[in-house]
Amino acid sequence: MLEMAATPKLIDPFKAYAAAGKLDLDLSAAILAVRQPATETAKQFSLSYQDRFRVVGGKVNLDGGSPGRTAYLREPYFTQDAGVTADYRGYSSITKQQDLDEMVTSFYEAKIPIFIHALGDAAIDQAIHAVTTAQKTHPREDIRQQLIHLQVF
Prior knowledge:
Elements: E1 2-6, H1 8-19, E2 27-32, H2 38-44, E3 53-61, H3 97-110, E4 114-117, H4 121-137, E5 146-148
Parallel strand pairs: 1-2, 2-3, 3-4, 4-5
Helix pairs in contact: 3-4
């Protein structure tokens, strides 16, 4: 099982539950990068399970989804919902590319994975830029970064 939006406060209860032998299956958690810096997540990260639990890295949600029209697109949505401007194209949770670049780079520097939810093509562009920047700054051969939920590209 995978918890891809864990807050830092969830990790200790997960560990306690695991230590008590209450997990019947493996549980992995990715900690929200906006809630905890990479240096802290690195202290909890593990390549192996301890009592069927492990922290697998960090997570960034760049945009939302297509059903709710919150995926971040390069071009405006073909049809607009009532009450939105004609140029509405969704939005990114991180508006400055440099902020995302620095966040992803911090995970590269800490040598732990970061999972990036990017559904819309503009969000995918942001994610690719951030990963490319991080790889140039802290080159790695064993890269476990993932872009997840890619839908529009």
